[in-house]
Structures are given as structure tokens and as C-alpha cells.
Amino acid sequence: MINIAIDGPAGAGKSTIAKRVSKELGYIYVDTGAMYRAMALYLLREGTPEDDMEAVSRTCLGADISLRYENGEQAVLLNGENVNGLIRTPEVSQMASKCSVNGDVRARLVELQQKLGREQNVVMDGRDIGTVVLPDAQVKIYLTADPRVRAERRYKEMLAKGEEADLDMIEKEIIERDHRDMTREISPLKKADDAVEVDTSHMNIEQVTETILGIIAERRGAQA
Ligand code: DC
Description:
Blueprint: E1 3-7, H1 14-25, E2 28-31, H2 32-45, H3 53-59, E3 65-70, E4 73-78, E5 81-82, H4 90-99, H5 103-119, E6 122-126, H6 129-133, E7 139-144, H7 147-160, H8 167-183, E8 196-199, H9 205-223
Helix pairs in contact: 1-9, 2-4, 2-5, 4-8, 7-8
Bound molecules: 2'-deoxycytidine-5'-monophosphate.
2'-deoxycytidine-5'-monophosphate is lined by residues 10, 32-33, 36-37, 96-97, 100, 126-129, 177, 181.
């Protein structure tokens, strides 16, 4: 199976790019952040205190998270319910980052992610894909962008959806989340030694997609 790993901080453009690249290659797109978000939604619904790691470890056992593909789109199921429309709020974002420091939460989701990578050609995005989930991925990309640029992208996305948004607040939340994701003990966000870093601060979506497809073709050519 061909596995392509895309890691990077919040708002670097991972999901937009991974979706395009997977479509172009005819591979399945696996958004692992959505799995942590579905878990966070479950913990919030259960009223689990975010800083009580024992409670998080215990409660996470009640969440059965799976993926389904409908017309090429990934749907995340939480105990059978499609929760795609409920997991993009700031509250769920912060809880996802907080609960993802928990080893029991990670073990459950990593197992599912590895199974998908064994069974299908995937483009998988997240924080620890190249380092932990798919260490043997044929191609690894580390996508970054300046925090202000990432905040501006999220801000525009929210305005486009008719949501209220505060640019400074979004930037503050992104920086806070990056810090937690990069400094946690288990599987922190970091560039894999064999990943190619792409800074998207001054690139548009088409340019990033072309760059990544170029890197994939080059790496795969070298491996053939
Ligand atoms: O990519 P995202 O913003 O949807 O991810 C939400 C949170 O989930 C992120 O702040 C950290 C966590 N996460 C993780 O720890 N490992 C992954 N592979 C993907 C996401």
C-alpha cells in the first residue's frame, strides 16, 4: 500500500491540500484530526473534566469512532452518529488538543489509523503521522505557515461561512494549540527526519498542491 503522511500545525492547510492530493492520486483521504475532534465531542457531552486524565482515560472507552466514505468525502462516526457538522467549533478544537495528550485516547485512534494505512492507499494528515502512525510512509510532508497567516486563513473561512470571527483571538488560540501539540509528552508534533518541509505562508492552494504532487512524484520515482 502507498501511504502519504502530511503533518503540521493547525491551519497550515493540511486538510485542503491532503483532500486535493488524494483526489488527484485516487487515494483515500484520512483526516485524523477529525477523529480527535469526535473524541473531544464525546468527552464534552459526557461532561468529562478536561484536566482529569483518569476520567478522560476511563470515559474514552465509551467512544466508538469510525470513518465512512460517501462520494469520496470522509464522515466521522461517533457511536454510529455522523458528527462532521459538530466538530469544528472552537470549544471542540481546544478539547481535541487537550484530550490528545492522553495516551489511552491516542492508542485507540492510532490503531484505527494504522489499520486504514495497511488496507488502503492513503493520504493521511495529522500531527504524528510521519513520526508514529505511519513511520514507513513512502512520502512524508511537513506543512507549515506563519501563525498570523494561518489565523487569517481560518478567519476568512469563518467569515465565508457567515460565522462571527475575531482575528486576534483566532491567532491566540492557534498559538496556544501549537504549543500544547508540540510540547506534549506522547507523540508531539514534530517534523519527521525524512519529511520534506513546505512553508505555505506565501503560496496559494494550487501552488501548494502542485509542489506536493511534485515531491510525491519525485520521491516515488526515486523509490521505483
Ligand atoms: O488537525 P486538527 O486541527 O483537526 O486537530 C485537532 C487536534 O487533534 C489538534 O489540536 C491535536 C490533535 N491531533 C493529534 O494530536 N494528532 C493527530 N494525528 C491529529 C490531531
